[in-house]
Amino acid sequence: MAASQREISISEFFAKNRHLLGFDNPKKALLTTIKEAVDNSMDACEEAGILPEILVEIMAIDGQDDRFKVAIQDNGPGIVKAQVPNIFGKLLYGSKFHSRRQSRGQQGIGISAAGLYAQMTTGKGPEIISRVKRKKAHHFVLQMDSTKNKPMITRDKELADWHLKHGTRFECTLEATYKRGKGSVDDYIKQTAVANPHASLTYLAPGMEEPMVYEAASKIVPERGEEIKPHPYGVELGELIKMLRQTNSRWLSGFLKEDFCRVGPKVAKSIIAEAGLSEKSYPSRIAREEADALHRAIQKAKISSPPTTCLSPIGEERILEGLQKETDADFYAVCTRPPSVYRGNPFQIEVGIAWAKPGDDHLDVDGDGKITKIKKKKRGTFDTENLLGNADDAIRILRFANRVPLLSQQASCGFTKAAISTSWKNYGLQQSKGSLPVGSAVILVHMASVWVPFTSEAKEAIAPYDEILKEVRLAMQEAGRKLGVHIRKGKKISSEFQKRNYIDAFLPHVGIGLQEILKLEPEVREDTVDMLRATLESTRKI
Amino acid sequence: MAASQREISISEFFAKNRHLLGFDNPKKALLTTIKEAVDNSMDACEEAGILPEILVEIMAIDGQDDRFKVAIQDNGPGIVKAQVPNIFGKLLYGSKFHSRRQSRGQQGIGISAAGLYAQMTTGKGPEIISRVKRKKAHHFVLQMDSTKNKPMITRDKELADWHLKHGTRFECTLEATYKRGKGSVDDYIKQTAVANPHASLTYLAPGMEEPMVYEAASKIVPERGEEIKPHPYGVELGELIKMLRQTNSRWLSGFLKEDFCRVGPKVAKSIIAEAGLSEKSYPSRIAREEADALHRAIQKAKISSPPTTCLSPIGEERILEGLQKETDADFYAVCTRPPSVYRGNPFQIEVGIAWAKPGDDHLDVDGDGKITKIKKKKRGTFDTENLLGNADDAIRILRFANRVPLLSQQASCGFTKAAISTSWKNYGLQQSKGSLPVGSAVILVHMASVWVPFTSEAKEAIAPYDEILKEVRLAMQEAGRKLGVHIRKGKKISSEFQKRNYIDAFLPHVGIGLQEILKLEPEVREDTVDMLRATLESTRKI
Amino acid sequence: MAAKKKKKVTKKVTKKKFTPEKVRKAGPSKRKGKNDLSAVAIESIKDVALDVFNVANSGELPEMVMPQRNLKNVTYDKKTGYFEMAGNMKTRRLDVNSVKTFAQTLRLMSLAKDMVADDDFATKREAYYVSKNWGDAKFGEQRESDSVLDDIEGMFSLKDITREILRFRPEEHGGSVVGALTVIDHDPETGEAIRSDCAAMGSGAYTIPSSVDHLGFETTADFIIAIETGGMFQRLNHHRYWRNSNCILVEMSGVPTRATRRFTRRLSQDLKLPVYVFVDCDPYGICNIYRTLKVGSGAAAHVNKDFCVPNATFMGVTPQDIIDFQLEDATHPLLPVDIKRAKDALKNDPFFKAHPKWVKAIKQMLKMGVRAEQQAFAKWGLNFVIEEYLPTKIKDAKNFLP
Amino acid sequence: MAAKKKKKVTKKVTKKKFTPEKVRKAGPSKRKGKNDLSAVAIESIKDVALDVFNVANSGELPEMVMPQRNLKNVTYDKKTGYFEMAGNMKTRRLDVNSVKTFAQTLRLMSLAKDMVADDDFATKREAYYVSKNWGDAKFGEQRESDSVLDDIEGMFSLKDITREILRFRPEEHGGSVVGALTVIDHDPETGEAIRSDCAAMGSGAYTIPSSVDHLGFETTADFIIAIETGGMFQRLNHHRYWRNSNCILVEMSGVPTRATRRFTRRLSQDLKLPVYVFVDCDPYGICNIYRTLKVGSGAAAHVNKDFCVPNATFMGVTPQDIIDFQLEDATHPLLPVDIKRAKDALKNDPFFKAHPKWVKAIKQMLKMGVRAEQQAFAKWGLNFVIEEYLPTKIKDAKNFLP
Q1: CB contact A507 to D (< 8 Å)
Q2: How many A-B residue pairs are in contact by the CB < 8 A criterion?
Q3: Containing domain of residue A280, as a range?
Q4: Residue B241, in any domain of the structure
Q5: B539 — contact with chain A (CB < 8 Å)?
């Protein structure tokens, strides 16, 4: 029996459990592949301070309707030749896992898993062309050895010329299904454009006559969040022991100050005192029981929140731009919350709301308080074209984590739970208990964090940590209040318009009644009615 | 940038994503730890042909209400000294991942993850005592190096004496919450007893005055499923290419016959012909395009189902024993389906139903067709004690995969989906559209398979593959039909009982009416009523 | 004496010429006398019970036979003029499902026998309460006892015994009557004749009793108007419309009760007066009120023969009236229940199906999609109906809808 | 002549001794004559309109003032004997919310003025239809016009002008009357007197007209019984209960209409007869029917003075009767709506709160948790109510519930 025990490669594991990575079925596999590649492209561009220009292509393959070729190309900095095979051909390989820094990718699994899936289903490994500035482009074709979790290079060729000065192109052929509608690649591209108004996206899919182009609305590359040290509150005992063993600090107080953020001399002193230890202890000699005491002391200490420099929220202005660019609403409200912390990880929540008045008309008030009715322009109906639903549908929630849209598992997502537990009735929307509010509107929720707690490796939903739910609710409430003011004002105008019509309709009948009873002359009646109208309107101002 | 790219250890990955492994919160962590250990113990006993006797202990720790010590001990074959550290201290290490054989554990992650979680939260690594027959027991204390995914042995001591001749004891101290009720450890132990009537379980938890003992109801160790070769239908193109490269067969036809199950010379020949290849091709020289053709040819070929010798269903008799032992129902129906296949993996579905008549009474029909009312014995109320719910509650589903109870994620589980999409109304149960049926009953579903497709690494729910859903539905229908016959018969008896009462109540009034109108003597009236009663009852036989 | 008084009053105020020959008279109904029928009723009840008794004692299961009561069990022939029973029977055999109803039927038959013998009566509600002393066999709701009463009525209708003879009365309010009519009743205790002059009710009216076959009539009127609503009846009475146009007004208050139908039938038949029906222009007014008055109903198929007024004609309000009298903006849209009722009539009602004019009129209403009430004429002035509508219509009475 | 006839009939059949002195007479109501009131009504309507006109032309917003109509705006004093208006007013000021109602009020006032001038009338339904010619100002539903009519009535009640004077009539059926009573009406056209002998209605009954102040009465009766249901009324009438116990029977058919209340009040006051009320033992019978008959209602606070019968007393059915006459198994459980009604009465109704005996009786009913109908006595035989219940109760009339 002992003889059969052996080590299992991570790629074997994920090949067998590919639903864990979002490759449950051919439709989702297509989306996941494109998503992972676009995420990487965006991250690469932003890290290099380049405004992303990204091309996404889905190509049908003649005679094979269950296979597609996809290509994702960016104008990023490119990847040095030696790293290409590992980045694209080895699972759990990447730059982002160990860094406490906000980025789209974080595990180093996604793009290699896409290549692995492609190879598993069609036998063909991924192709990569990448070019670093002032160097030649290289063209790789990889084949992955899943037993060893290692890439094999089947082609490695320098290209004499490539049309981009720098950038990367990833291509693979996979078993896939291409469909439009909610949760589709179309939807993903559209939502990505909303949350990334600084990016230009060009998208071509089967059935399109020409590519769909999402122009950038902003020319500012989002600031890159700084890398931070761990915050003491987020470190568990086991991790603390590991850090004690690996630290370069000689003394316990130095360890606390140097290896964590937000720990100054005073805080370090109080923690060590609380733990009953000495400041001059050697970290590597702290026993387990002592570490335990230290860990408990940390929880009791008052330590300020982690620095927010590591976070790069989209920002209220950019969210507004994104929503305005991609929706045709009557009102927009946004809110970026101050950063907060869960399990020692700083995060920041942003919410945007786009709301359209129900009905086809719009009432306009001029300077004199005169109200006129204006016909609204017609909206499109294709639902990836038009993010706003009908006035009697549940409101759509666009969920983003580090600017990446989350397209599935809406019901189990913390964002959805927060939206359901917010009292939208207070803000003028209809809502039944336990449901999303109803209206022709869309709610954008974005979480920026150095570590986003997804509920599964497929990165589809946010785990409902209390701290996160609370922040999402607060943001929704803040944006909701602005919306509420607007809706109430709209209702007031519309009711005033109706009331003035009312007066015009019924005042003449007051005149007729008086005329009949008092046998008035028609002119007397008219005068009386005019007098009354003047008196009445003088009492009503908006 | 390239410099920061580096490899990520699997244990680092899972430490950061521990919710993927079922350690989302302290309550679940406790359950997952015990579950993984019990699963391993059961597997070990059965592999060695031993009737499992398993002890599970949860111990409170004085003064620390957020930590518990747990111990799981079995009478299995024990583990040879050299393997202990890797099995318990290294993630993705095990005997079961690569074998196509039915077992509880499959990934080689669970028990090491439990140790890792314990160490992360309390700093203490796991302790293991194991003894192989005719050898001394060894006592290990491990500490895990998550950066390298390697165990460090902090204690390794031979024990002079141990009270078991062979067996293994696993102990760890972890941050945990102990609660009773649905989804608790209590529930898990109870359900494990239902699905494993051959195992003796002794369970002691805080607050219990003495251990709860589930005696074995059967003395037969379940037959161990044989290991099988892959079935051609379940092999994807990528895997096929890998197999072609690694095979020992010299010829393509040999490769097909030797490396797969269910491929004889005729089938191999037809596949190769369909692919347009030669039987004498060297497997390692098959090009990607040729492999693709071969893969397509396999899908078109008619190949019989994989052998079922690899599967070890519980069996209808044992399911009945288990249900009868642990529920107090009025009717039981079981069904073990013939084996089936999904993605080349053979699997087998079993369903058991325990049903209790609503109400406190029971009607009994004797040989003469006489019906009498019998008071039923009272049921317990504590819901881990009593698996049957109230007559107006949704029916509980007990889900098992390779005899292991699945306690969470019921809603997203394929078993639940299959139960919801079965028309229970046909079988006499109430059911609203899109819901589970209603009744004082429990439905047991067991899937035996060489590879169970869980929706997440925490092994909580079965992925809803069409083939699996279909088999579950068929099994439910078969058991449901038996239940339906019983319920309908019960309803008939109860309606007949009511009808006879009816006759007794109203026939005298027919007599009174006749007496009043016709001025009958009382005796004449009585005679007429008696005559009528006799005539009426003679027309009614059950 | 009262007749004299009436004559005097009428003479004095009528603007028409009046000749004594114009007085029409009718005695009590020609149907078998109440006493004869009472004896028949008691015998019939005994017969049914005896049959049950004999069958029971022969070791068989006894049965009761009664006509089916629904629109499918009636036929309509313009010549006969009412819904005739087609003869489909239902048989209630004593078994476990019927034993309760069977017992209740016998016990209510026993009650009927006693009431007939004592010349007493019970309302349907009282019959329900009488059962409260029956122990298990008591009725839980009046709906149940009403249904058994309907069965009993059906069963005995085969022997020409009506519910009235069996002494069960509905709770319902009888219709009201005013106009050139004297009703001759008798005091139930003394037997003395009582003359009620329906032209001398002031602002009140004569209320039709629940049983009318014993009444006699005298009239000088030319026709009868049967009116749906109390409001319209009040208006015509207040303005003494019956005097000026020499007619009798009958208020139906919705679907006319059996007594109102029988009363109107007797006026129409025994006094040979035409009956004009004036109801709302909606499917309820046409398909329920008018149809039931004229030809009876499916549910009462067994008694239609005497309880309907075959020579009634439909004065209005017709769909065409809505157009002719410009009532469009005083209409209401047809509700789904109205539309269903009208479509049912076109599809299933033998009466309407037999009259192409009705089919046309109902289709017209469906097409217009609206209904109009009698009161809608008030739009043109409160007394437009008296001054314009009724005179215009009655001038053309031969063209009323059949 | 009719009076002579009546006397003769009565004389012949009554079993009691009869002395001519016992005949009580009453002429038309002592309230101001109809013609006087009509003139007042027209002036009042003009006054309200003129006030609106003047205020409007002075650049202010005109108002109308009317009493609040609800139970909170009434007071009850045993001595006065009815719900008096407490004097809370509501002011309807012309603004955007009230402009439609304001216009409709004026237009309906104009209609009333015309009807008073022409001595015509309109049912509430007709008033609703009249509005169909008003364009935008027309009523969408009768509920709306009824509400405006109620406001107009309230407004003019301050000047002692009732709805009847304003010539608006409800659609409702008037109550029925039989017994030792002659009603003296007059022909609206000729003015000639019409005598209706309520002992000579055969199996029918005299219907109370919608306006009763012009009626005169003659009676030999000793008391009046006001009865809730038509079924019970029919039974007592059929058995000539009124003759044998020398009384007048009034059928209320549920909550009595204003005309029935006024009619009974006039009998009670002008002829000095006690009134015994016989209704179902349930919160509706007690808290709605009886309370409204005796002291009026909150909604009609402005007219209660004349439209109630303060000296009425409650004969039954009382909760104690259920026990005394063993009706327990002929009861039905109180429904939630019954319980709410009874509790409301105990909490909010000034009448019941003023009478400890009533508080006790209602609490007893709530505790028993059941209600009983008048018909429940049928359990003991159809005529138990005549032979046992009524004689037993009336013997002890001084102890009736107040």
Answers
A1: yes
A2: 147
A3: 232-300
A4: yes
A5: no
B155 and B271: one domain? Answer: no
A347 part of a folded domain: yes
Render pLDDT for D315-361 as a digit per residue (tens, 0 to 9): 989 999 999 999 988 888 999 999 999 999 999 999 999 999 999 99
Contact with chain D for residue C238, Cβ under 8 A: yes
Q: Which residues of C touch B512 (CB under 8 A)?
A: 103, 106-107
Looking at the fold, whether B477 and B394 belong to one and the same domain comes out as yes
- Omega of the bond prior to D317 within 30 degrees of 0, cis? yes
Same domain, B175 and B258: no
Helices (H) and strands (E) in chain A, counts: 13, 18
Please judge whether A237 and B93 are an interchain contact, meaning their C-beta atoms are less than 8 angstroms apart.
Answer: no
Say whether C106 and B532 touch across the interface (CB within 8 A).
Answer: no
A505 with D136: Cβ contact below 8 A: yes
Long-range pairs for B238-243 at CB < 8 Å and ≥24 separation? B238/A15, B238/A116, B238/A119, B238/A120, B238/A121, B238/A122, B238/A123, B238/A146, B239/A15, B239/A120, B240/A123, B240/B291, B240/B294, B240/B295, B240/B298, B241/A123, B241/B286, B241/B288, B241/B291, B242/A146, B242/A147
Taking contacts as CB-CB distances below 8 angstroms, the residues of chain D near A539 are: 61, 95
Tokens of C151: 């069965």
Same domain assignment for residues B292 and B192? no
pLDDT, tens digit, 9 for 90 and up, residues D203-249? 778 888 878 888 899 999 999 999 998 889 988 988 889 998 999 99
Domain end marker among B473, B489, B505: B489
Whichever domain contains B110, its CATH number is 3.30.565.10
Cβ within 8 Å, pair C329-D132: yes
Kindly list the residues from chain D whose CB atom is less than 8 angstroms away from the CB atom of residue A534: 59
- What is the tens place of the pLDDT at every residue in C71-122? 888 888 888 888 888 888 889 899 888 899 999 999 999 999 999 998 888 8
Catalytic residue list of C? 129
Per DSSP, the three-state class of D280 is: coil
What b/e readout covers B395-415, taking b as 16+ CB neighbours within 10 angstroms?
bbbbbbbbbbbbbbbbebbbb
A65 and A187 share a domain?
A: yes
| Structural domain ending residue among the three candidates A271, A300, A329 | A300
Residue A256 lies in a domain: yes
Do B50 and B145 share a structural domain? Answer: yes
Q: How far apart are CA B286 and CA A173, in angstroms?
A: 20
**For the ranges B188-197, D63-72, D340-349, the one whose mean pLDDT is highest:** D340-349
Chain A neighbours (≥3 Cβ pairs under 8 A) are B, D
Q: Domain check: are B23 and B78 in the same one?
A: yes
Give every CB contact of residue B181 below 8 A, 6+ residues apart in sequence. Answer: B187, B383, B384
Q: Find the CATH number of the domain harbouring A363.
A: 3.30.230.10
Same domain, B127 and B173: yes
The answer to whether position B515 is within a domain reads: no
Q: Decide if D13 and C187 are in contact by the 8 Å CB cutoff.
A: yes
pLDDT, mean of residues A189-211:
89
Q: Which residues of C touch B502 (CB under 8 A)?
A: 96, 99-100
Please write the tens of the pLDDT for every residue from C151-177. Answer: 898 899 888 888 888 988 877 667 889
Question: If you average pLDDT over residues B5-25, what whole number do you get?
Answer: 71
Closest Cβ opposite residue B92 in set A7, A82, A242? A7
Taking CA atoms, what residue in A is nearest to B21? A456
pLDDT of amino acid D16: 46
Q: What whole-number distance in Å separates Cα of residue A345 and Cα of residue A261?
A: 11
Residue B379 banded pLDDT, cuts 50, 70, 90: very low
CB contact under 8 A, D103 and A539: no
CB contact under 8 A, C234 and D186: no
All residues of chain A having their beta carbon less than 8 Å from the beta carbon of residue B288 are: 123-124
Helix (H, G, I), strand (E, B) or coil at D97: coil
Number of domains in chain A: 3
